[in-house]
Amino acid sequence: MKIRNLIRIASLTTLLLAFVAGPSAQEAAPDKVKLSAGFTNTEYSFESLFSTEYEQGLTAELDARIFKKSGIRLGGVFQYNRNAVGADLPIDTYSFGPQLSVDLFKGVVSPFGRALFGFQTTYNSDRVFTRAYGVGVDVNLGHVFIRPVVVDWIRTEGFGSPATQRFGAGVGVRF
Q: Which side of the chain, N or C, has fewer Cβ within a 10 Å radius?
């Protein structure tokens, strides 16, 4: 129920910002480098539906443009995510990989897809390989952008590792 409400709010916010931000996004804002920060909600699903856990976290991203032509942008992303912020053993994830986005509505809205690879650790000699496949959308407001929704499907290597979904939202700047 909570996820459905989050998706509705994010969709409405994106739609409203697309109409309001049209004139400011028509400026030739550079997008060579994008820095963003956001909040995440990670859902760990174990063997049954009744053993699902949720943990909140913070994320920071650096996205450097590799290629852009005709509104299609390929960037290289480095992402740091700290999950379970208030816990005794927070989980840190360091990952990198490609992100492909397409500019719509004269560059105001940019949906993207990505594949990130890296490792996850609690700093107790327990590094494990992780991969995340995600989709999201950026609403560009000149040099500032809002990321109303991003969803990552995460797979961590190891026996019995849970299926993980991470939902997030954030804000960033473009240079």
A: N
The two tokens of residue 56 are 């909140």
Tell me the C-alpha distance between 86 and 91, whole Å: 11
Length of the chain: 175
The identity of residue 137, as a single letter, is V
Strands (E), the chain: 33-45, 52-69, 72-83, 91-102, 109-121, 128-141, 144-156, 163-174
CA–CA separation, 105 and 51 (whole Å): 42
Residues whose CB falls within 8 Å of the CB of residue 3, separated by 6 or more in sequence, listed in order: 167
Burial of 43 (0-12, 13-18, 19+ CB in 10 A): middle
Average pLDDT of span 159-167: 75
Query: At residue 129, what is the residue type?
Result: F
- Measure the N-to-C terminal CA separation of the chain; round to a whole number of Å: 38
> What value does the mean pLDDT take over residues 133-147?
94
pLDDT of residue 44: 76
Q: Comparing C-alpha atoms, which of 39, 40, 34 is closest to residue 74? A: 34
